[in-house]
Design a protein that fits this description.
This protein has three helices and two strands; from the N terminus they run E-E-H-H-H. By secondary structure, the chain is α+β, with helices and mostly antiparallel strands. It has one domain. Strand 1 and strand 2 (15-21) form a beta hairpin.
């Protein structure tokens, strides 16, 4: 693992985008999607739809993963 962000492509409601996250956040994001029974793209689209316009998608995903870890929940 590395501390440097890695870029991955996601498809949000038919639109391709790329997001750069650190390996630990990618791992947490994937684990949360799995635990919720969702595809990674579907969870990303849910996070994207809920974020404030001034908040970037990568930041919103990091906050989602962080809050889930802090609360010990799946962020239902």
């Amino acid at each position: 693992m590395t501390d440097r962000p890695r870029k991955h492509s996601l498809t949000l409601r038919g639109h391709r985008t790329s997001v750069s996250l650190e390996d630990d956040f990618w791992a947490g994001f994937r684990a949360l999607a799995r635990a919720r029974g969702q595809a990674l793209n579907d969870l990303a689209a849910e996070i994207d739809a809920a974020r404030a316009p001034e908040t970037g998608l990568a930041t919103a995903i990091r906050l989602f993963v962080y809050r889930a870890a802090r609360n010990g929940t799946q962020q239902d």
